[in-house]
Amino acid sequence: MILNAIIDEQVYELNVPDALVARAGEYFDQLDRDMDAGWQMSREWVDAPDRMQRCQIVADKLLTALETENEKLGLLMAGYILARLPGVESVELDTQGEIQNNGFTIAESRPSPAPAAGDGARGMGKLEAMEQAGQDVSQVFRVGRGYRFSVLDPATGAWQDSPTLASEQEASRLRQQAFKARYEELIGKDAS
User: Fold this and answer.
1) Residue 180 and residue 174: Cα distance in Å, rounded?
2) Crossing angle for the helix pair 126-136 and 168-187, nearest 10 degrees?
């Protein structure tokens, strides 16, 4: 698998062997356990980093590995990102120490005309659907000077980023719409 790391317009192509990702699963789980207790993300303490924030934290470790030319650590950090963000193509690393500004490009995937039909999760109870929708729609995160959120496409299993929005409020509003649409899909309500 290949992850492109972008540092100040310089692109580093990291070719991570599939075998390394498979063998490093326990290491990745340990990283997750370390982050379960919370993490300092630049000036902000995050009690429970979500999947995207965890990848931003690991991206910061990737930047350090690239700067110190630690190839083994760099491949491990790239492997974590590839394993935790299916469809990720590149990571733009912030060199100013702002972990939350590490941004990801996720492959565009075209959902089938009726992705919900094969979802298998339709007809969930309201609580279960709310919990699942919360896992399928990421929190709003900062990318450079804008804001985004990601939505899991259940048909492909790939994460799709929202457009970059100028304000956190606008991103939050659109995230709420995406969350509601996913919730209604999960409980089997016709969202048309």
Assistant:
1) 10
2) 140
Q: What are the residues whose beta carbons fall under 8 Å from the beta carbon of 64, sequence distance 6 or more? A: 70, 73
Lowest mean pLDDT among 7-11, 37-41, 48-52, 109-113: 109-113
Higher-scoring residue by pLDDT: 117, 58: 58
Give how far the C-alpha of residue 26 lies from the chain's centroid of Cα atoms, to the nearest Å: 20
Q: Which of 123, 132, 135 is closest to 190 using CA atoms?
A: 123
Ramachandran angles phi, psi of 76, nearest 5°? -65, -45
153-182 as b/e, with b when 16 or more CB fall inside 10 Å?
A: bbbbebbbbbeebeeeeebeebbeebbeeb
Q: Which band of pLDDT confidence, cut at 50, 70 and 90, is reported for residue 108? A: low
Condensed to tens digits (0 to 9), the pLDDT of residues 19-29 reads: 888 889 899 99
Concatenated DSSP letters of the chain:
-EEEEEETTEEEEEE--HHHHHHTHHHHHHHHHHHHT-EEETTEEESS--HHHHHHHHHHHHHHHHHTT-HHHHHHHHHHHHHHSTTEEEEE--TTS-GGG-EEEEPP----S-GGGG-S-TT--HHHHHHHHHHHBPPPEEETTEEE-EEE-TTT--EEEPPPBS-HHHHHHHHHHHHHHHHHHHHT----
pLDDT at 128 over 90: no
